[in-house]
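Our platform keeps sequence and structure together, in a single record for each protein. Such a record has a labelled line for the sequence and another for the backbone structure tokens. This encoding replaces a full spatial description with a residue-level series of whole-number codes. Below, we set out a record of this kind in full and without editing:
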Amino acid sequence: MQLTILDNSLWFPPVHEADSEGLLAMGGDLSVDRLLIAYKNGIFPWFDGDIPLWWCPDPRFVLYPDALQVSKSMQLLLKKKSFQFTTNKAFREVIHLCKDVKRKDQDGTWITPEVEKAYIELHELGFAHSAEVWQDKKLVGGLYGIKMGKVFFGESMFSLVSNASKYAFIAYVSQLKEEGIEIIDCQIYTAHLESMGANMIDRTAFINTINKLI
């Protein structure tokens, strides 16, 4: 398969042209218009160099809000309100910490300064959203993603103390459900999110779903 190289034109090849790992295209830029076209078509950027790589894996890892599973230990933390939960109060700080906080078995994240700038612009335009959890007035966990129609495209999360990112995720899923979100795109499999109810679905089914919801 020949990989599509994007130029300045705002387009993407059909998602079925992605390779076996989900890589669809490379190049282009991270302009607001291109990013919005990408998400609307189930495509997301993920790369650790200077050239954007665009993905649409098959199968796709998603969570339906009604399928959220909360462990007994997390239920207890939520009941005790062990953290303070907010949304869109500290988007810049959340994405910056998602970029800088080290993760087990990872050398770093794909969030470059260029990516950070692009998503801050999306936030200022009302497309990118953050969820935060605080402890003693300190930001200790959170996540961010893109909201379009009845779809939330999750991007990244971070945690500075135990269970902080789980708390943010669970609280935010509950809020998204109240806001009418019907599917949360988790992109790529993680055991962490699987334990909370996320599962794999066929790419065609995913694309058909978001086409109806955006």
